[in-house]
Write a structure and sequence with these properties.
Layout (H helix, E strand, L loop, with lengths): L68 H14 L6 H14 L4 H12 L6 H11 L6 H5 L17 H17 L26 H7 L8 H13 L6 E9 L5 E2 L1 H8 L11 E8 L2 E6 L5 H18 L2 E5 L3 E3 L1 H5 L3 H11 L9 H17 L4 E5 L8 H14 L2 E5 L13 H6 L5 E3 L4 H11 L4
Parallel strand pairs: 4-5, 4-7, 7-8, 8-9
Antiparallel strand pairs: 1-3, 2-3, 5-6
Helix pairs in contact: 1-2, 2-3, 8-10, 13-14
């Protein structure tokens, strides 16, 4: 009987796996192009155990770490196998494809992708967690490299574990075993070993971006800011919801609509056979954002303009910028491409990179749009370092007015994250008594926390 053992593989889709045709006649007559890592035993069992080590390596996963994704996934699968959890080649392929498709930006996202694709039983979770923590969170055994005997041993070893030369022999034996099973051999050093520079090698497909998320915007290079800008663009601004009018509820609810029930009872001789119910409706609260674009806020200016843009597009927020005067930029940020919209918004504000008159800007807002209803019951976010050039008492008065109109006032000061920070500047000291939440928005993680504060339920 003859059969096509490559029926599940389309050569046009992935020619790197196999481009020949294999007929099962007791011997393998297929043509191997050199890219099929399956071991030919003389008999085609109908199962190709090879995988393409170049799986979609040209796909932008959103994480530029200089590490080949397929090789990193294969090396991590080998680490799991060494730790006692066998991971098939197919599952490694699934994981690599999932990374290329979902483009994870956090270690937690990478953790769950690996958990749902690499494991097939809950009993392997403790080992998986330990290996993942050692590899992707950078928890290499530093004490072992320093030779400290009082520190815990590395993963999957006993207190009297083999010496480094024995571990190297074990790694070589594992490489040979991987080759016999059709596994792609990793192209770099193993986790915990040293690379060409002598530093410990840690597979970190997402850890570099995780570290970048914690980095202060003021200390980022132009390339890092561009990467963070893409991350900020993917963050979603969600407006909190507030109770609205009662609405009819066809399901049996806890609240009975007496008016509708009695009106319906008139049709049945006054007997309320059909009970009407109602529930509280909800509507999103308005969001207002005022961002300082003065000279002292230049390192954070464009990042927060992206936050304003996301709020305008996603939550229909009202956006303003100020330095020495107040400028409404909601319309400029709502249309067009992101960079063009931000440039258009900055062009509308001629006082960019100038001085700071926070109190005067707030007074202008409250005397115009704020008093007309924009700030009433809204979540108002002020982004500024609080370096007021004018009399701080004016800022204190306007913050008092704002706190009476708004539902919640959030102040974002990137300088708050600096060591030893204290709100001693005149503007910050005058504003803080009227602030409901004081947030440090100095990094991408801090921006995510700010969005959580904005979306907090009322």
């Amino acid at each position: 009987m003859t059969g096509d053992s490559t029926a599940d593989i389309d050569p046009e889709v992935d020619p790197a796996i196999y481009t020949g045709t294999r007929t099962d006649t007791g011997t393998d007559t297929g043509t191997d192009t050199g890219t099929d890592t399956a071991i030919d035993t003389g008999t085609d069992t109908g199962t190709d155990t090879g995988i393409d080590t170049g799986i979609d390596t040209g796909t932008d996963t959103g994480i530029d770490t200089g590490i080949d994704t397929a090789s990193a996934c294969a090396a991590f699968g080998a680490a799991l196998t060494t730790a006692g959890v066998h991971v098939s080649a197919d599952r490694v392929v699934w994981w690599a494809q999932a990374i290329a498709t979902t483009r994870p930006t956090r270690v937690r996202e990478l953790y769950w992708l690996g958990r749902v694709t690499l494991l097939d039983n809950a009993g392997a979770l403790p080992v998986y967690d330990a290996v993942f923590g050692q590899v992707f969170r950078g928890l290499v055994d530093v004490a072992d490299q320093r030779g400290e005997a009082d520190q815990p041993p590395p993963l999957n070893t006993e207190p009297d574990a083999a010496q480094p030369d024995q571990r190297k022999r074990g790694a070589a034996e594992q490489d040979r075993a991987d080759g016999e099973q059709g596994w792609p051999r990793p192209t770099g050093p193993r986790p915990g070993e040293a690379d060409d520079t002598g530093r410990p090698f840690v597979l970190a497909t997402a850890s570099e971006l995780e570290l970048l998320r914690e980095k202060d915007f003021a200390h980022c290079s132009a390339e890092e800011l561009a990467e963070l800008a893409d991350l900020i663009d993917r963050m979603k601004v969600v407006a909190p919801r507030r109770p609205s009018r009662w609405v009819a509820d066809r399901s049996s609810g806890r609240s009975v609509d007496l008016r509708r029930t009695l009106r319906t009872a008139c049709r049945t001789g006054g007997d309320p056979i059909n009970w009407a119910h109602r529930r509280r409706g909800s509507t999103p609260r308005p969001i207002v954002l005022l961002a300082d674009v003065s000279g002292s806020m230049q390192p954070y200016e464009r990042i927060y303009l992206r936050v304003l843009q996301g709020a305008v597009i996603g939550a229909r927020a009202q956006a303003y910028v100020f330095a020495t005067r107040l400028t409404r930029v909601s319309g400029a940020l709502a249309t067009g491409r992101r960079e063009e919209a931000i440039a258009r918004a900055l062009a509308h504000a001629p006082d960019t990179a100038g001085g700071t008159l926070i109190g005067e800007a707030l007074k202008t807002f409250l005397d115009t749009d704020g008093r007309r209803g924009v700030a009433r019951g809204a979540v108002v976010v002020v982004v500024s370092d609080g370096w007021e050039r004018a009399d701080p008492s004016l800022l204190g008065e306007q913050m008092t007015r704002l706190s009476r109109l708004a539902y919640r006032v959030i102040w974002v000061n990137p300088r708050k994250a600096a060591p030893g920070f204290a709100p001693l500047t005149g503007g910050m000291a005058a504003a803080l008594p009227h602030v409901d939440a004081f947030v440090a928005g100095h990094s991408a993680s801090a921006v995510a926390e700010l969005l959580d504060v904005i979306a907090a339920p009322t």
